[in-house]
Design the sequence.
């Protein structure tokens, strides 16, 4: 196929409830959507998963827009693409900007799967039609509010609860959650790089809570200090922000910096790179799972497809549309079963219809690159 055009659309979507991490509090999302069209009029959709500011990583909304418009889209437009797996190579000369690259690469995967009339997850080589779902709960205004949210998600069927932690919201909070809900619930703490090695004693104390994992407790670009922390504590460390590529995963595993890896589709650069990490970790019995970035339904649909790969053995942050949006931009809205799973769709491509009218109503800017 030949890529004829790339459409960039920025939408603004208010969250159902604010989401707070150690980075700050988010009330609405600015999301860039990508629509890639071929010479026959077919189209595939992707999503830029970066934040509004360069806090999670160096990418952010306005920078991603310019990078795609001026550099990345021109690198693929007009090119004969024999396979979606080749798109990464067309952008290889541009360093970094993996979330921007993933927005184009995943859109081409969607387009190719539609042209082949197969579900994207099958086209990627997925093996798990039913994926296990967990939820991520941000820092709340009170412990009581946190309890209420955990109760709601458990009643909805979610099989794993992730709570955000920070130096003002850690030991005592986890202690109270364990006291309230017991040790039977699968519970993990996500620090988003909020701690240092000066906090080793604190993490040793938190070992007694028998958490599934501590996610990215130390610096966003570190694996060395994480290896030291992992040697000191029993709770598995899961790396997130530190893992941008297969070489990153290989080095982290080799030095013992983690026992689990969170794969975010945008952070690693798209489906091809996610598959490489999945295969590597699966062969070495390192569990991985799909992390979330407050995606719209398009990004969430791609996460579902990725989560069907054989390496994804732990519950991911792929949850129902209604947890975040009053109305999503896809139909049907993503829902979970009563036992906390999502069934991968059988429809071609990402498996959901994109609601153009809804997108148009949310659009704040758009452009077409040809």
Sequence:
């Amino acid at each position: 196929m030949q890529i004829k055009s790339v459409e960039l659309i920025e939408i603004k979507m208010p969250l159902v409830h604010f989401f707070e991490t150690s980075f700050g509090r988010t009330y609405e999302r600015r999301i860039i959507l990508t629509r890639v069209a071929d010479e026959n009029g077919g189209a595939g959709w992707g999503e830029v998963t970066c934040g509004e500011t360069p806090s999670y990583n160096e990418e952010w909304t306005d920078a991603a827009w310019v990078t795609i418009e001026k550099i990345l889209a021109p690198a693929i437009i007009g090119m004969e693409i024999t396979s979606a797996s080749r798109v990464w190579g067309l952008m290889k000369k541009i360093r970094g900007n993996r979330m921007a690259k993933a927005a184009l690469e995943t859109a081409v995967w969607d387009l190719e799967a539609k042209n082949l009339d197969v579900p994207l997850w099958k086209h990627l080589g997925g093996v798990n039609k039913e994926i296990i779902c967990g939820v991520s709960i941000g820092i709340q205004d009170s412990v009581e509010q946190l309890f209420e949210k955990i109760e709601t998600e458990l009643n909805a069927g979610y099989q794993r609860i992730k709570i955000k932690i920070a130096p003002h919201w850690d030991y005592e909070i986890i202690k109270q959650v364990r006291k309230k809900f017991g040790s039977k619930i699968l519970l993990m703490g996500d620090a988003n790089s909020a701690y240092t090695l000066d906090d080793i004693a604190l993490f040793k104390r938190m070992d007694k809570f028998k958490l599934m994992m501590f996610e990215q407790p130390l610096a966003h670009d570190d694996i060395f200090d994480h290896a030291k922390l992992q040697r000191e504590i029993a709770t598995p460390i899961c790396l997130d922000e530190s893992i941008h590529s297969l070489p990153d995963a290989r080095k982290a595993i080799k030095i013992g910096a983690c026992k689990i890896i969170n794969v975010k589709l945008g952070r690693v650069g798209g489906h091809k790179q996610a598959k490489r990490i999945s295969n590597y970790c699966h062969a070495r019995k390192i569990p991985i799972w799909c992390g979330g970035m407050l995606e719209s339904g398009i990004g969430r649909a791609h996460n579902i497809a990725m989560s069907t790969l054989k390496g994804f053995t732990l519950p991911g942050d792929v949850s129902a549309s209604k947890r975040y949006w009053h109305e999503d931009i896809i139909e049907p809205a993503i829902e979970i079963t009563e036992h906390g799973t999502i069934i991968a769709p059988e429809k071609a491509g990402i498996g959901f219809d994109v609601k153009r009218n809804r997108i148009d109503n949310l659009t704040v800017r758009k452009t077409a690159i040809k």
Observations:
- The first helix runs from residue 61 to 76.
